[in-house]
Amino acid sequence: MEVFDVVVIGAGPGGYPAAIRAAQLGASVAIVEKERLGGTCLNWGCIPTKALIAAAETFDRLKHAESIGISVTGASVNYAGMVAHKNKVVAQLNAGIKQLLTANAVKQFAGTASFKDRGTIAIGDGTVVGAKKVIIATGSTSTMPGFLPKHPRVVESRGFLDLEKLPASLIVLGGGYIGCELACMAAMLGVKVTIVELLDDILAPADVDVRREVRGHMEKKLGIRIMTGTALSDVAADKNGVRAKIGSETVEAEMLLCSIGRKPVTEGLNIEAAGLAPTQRGFIEADDYCRTKVATIFAIGDVTGKVQLAHYATSQAITAAENAVGGKPKKHEMLVPSVIFTSPEIGAVGLTEDEAKKAGRAVKTGKFRFAALGKAMAAGEIGGFVKWIADSRTDQLIGATVVGAHATELIATATTAIRAELTAEEFGRTILAHPTFNEAWMEAAHAVHGSCIHAAPLKRN
Amino acid sequence: MVTPIIMPKFGQMTEESTIVEWFKKEGDKVAKGDMLFAVETDKSVMEVESFEEGTLLKIVTKVGIGVPVQSIVGFLGAPGEAVPEVPALEVRSSAKQAVPSQAAVSRLPERPSAATPAAAPGPVLPIEQPAQIFRISPRAAALARASVIDPKPINGTGPAGRIVEKDVMAYLASRGYDALRISPAAKALAVKEGLDLLAIPATDGRIGVAEVERAVAEKPVAMPKMRQVIAERLTTSMATAPHWYASVSVDMGEVIAAREQMKAAGNKVSFNDFISYATVASLKDFPNFNSTTDGKVLRWKSRVHLGIAVSLDEGLVVPVIRNADELTLAELGARAADLAVKARAGKLGPDELSGSTFTISNLGMLDVENFAAIINLGEAGILAVGAVVKKPVVRGDEIVIRPMMKMTVSSDHRLIDGAMAARFINAVKKRLEDSETWKFLT
Question: Which ipTM value was assigned to this complex?
Answer without folding.
Answer: 0.75
